[in-house]
User: What shape does this take?
Amino acid sequence: MKLRHLLPLALVFLCSGCGNQVVTFIISAPPPVGSSRSASFTFAASTRVIERFDYVVDDVNFETPLQVSAGPDGTASITLENLSDGEHKISVNARIRRRDEGDHLRTATFAFRTWTVDPNAPPTAAAIDEGFAPAVDVNGAIFATAVQGDGNILIGGIFNTVSGQARNHLARLSSSGVVEGTSTFNSGFGADNAIDCVAVQTDGSILLGGSFKNVNGQPRNRIARLNSNGSLQDLTAFKIGSGVTGAGEPSGSPAPRIKCIAVQADGDAIDSAKLIVHAAAGIKSSRALDGAVAA
Assistant: This one.
């Protein structure tokens, strides 16, 4: 089996509710079943103070795991090649060096992933939709997109107009790429600063993260949730307290800024879904989110 290390992605994770326990994540992996005999993975953890990741493939050599160094952003990527047919498994855990612990490396939780190489599986490569040619003029930059269940497309970023219509950092396009009017999607005044990430929950609710402090004129520190029509949910429905607050750490670092939000499926009802919040470097998970997050 040949290994090829790839450049790490620029991601840092904070896990709401994880306390001081450092959690290992596998943030990209091959599909559960595929015909490819290579498999690429990206590892991350709930802190970016990572020295390396130890990993084991197919439960071989647990005593002497393979290693890959973490990049400056605390992530690392590998590619496994020349895989045999059948099921495979990878186990990984982060190794953290703490300044107050000398040369001792602390171990994070393990993350696992299984996948199957099946030469008869259909190809997974996606083709470009030549029929999708949105005529959208944005007076800034788009940082995030998400697709709703009906095919409509949410865009977030740092902009004030879309195709000449006032849209503060958030807009919705039809499935064909045309900006929607406020009669069908209305987020009011929008956000007062950049929206860096957008996610859609299974009930249609829309999660926003970024550097904003207000959404539709209401205080929402860097995280908010909308109804599917763009209206802002109140804090009795989305219990985030004062949101993500505080100065950057270490001192002098940028203020908190949520760069990624995802809904983690845990098999329970939608009201017990968990949020994984990825924020700028240096923000401690224990102080990042004030309040209980309700799905």
